[in-house]
Amino acid sequence: MLLHFPQDIFLLILQELVIQDILSLRSTCKSLFEAIEDRSVWLYVVQDIVSVLPLPLDYQRHLTTMPIDDLKRLALREAHLNACWHLGDMSCRHLRESTCDLDSDAIYLLPGGDWLVGVIWRKSGSSMGLRSLNTSSSPIVVQIPIPEAKGLHLLEYYLAFSDQRKPLLVLSIGEKFVKLSPSSDCYCR
């Protein structure tokens, strides 16, 4: 019956469904399965997720250029994450221990769970340390110097996201903000 609607109406109906309903509808018959394979359906689902939650995505590739298989994989992963998050049992399913050789005043775990960021704030020179938690290879440790702000003191630091939804460490130094990203150089504002 749904397939008798014009395609634009059918797509508007799909946009109102949550991903679990789209998956259920997709599994009912071959015709609906093929109709839901439209790239715009999955692009809308992922854009809807991203509009609500900042995700640990690799935004070097824009969503609009992402292949349909990657869009589906991302949508399914986020649906699974959302379903697990709302379970009554919040006990730990996976625990990974790692020693941290970062001498830090504060440590943050970046989204995705693959990197630790340590902030080292000293009068002699401050830096941000990155340490990979990837267990498949030896840990990578990177030290990134933080630009000096003479005569100013660190007020606060916190984890945020850039406009491209990449993790940033924001340092508030007086009236300056220093934004540090693991994937690029720092910049001040």
From TrEMBL:
UniProt cross-references to SMART domains, sorted A to Z: FBOX
UniProt name for this protein: F-box domain-containing protein
Domain F-box: 1-45
InterPro entries in alphabetical order: F-box-like_dom_sf, F-box_dom
Domain of life: Eukaryota
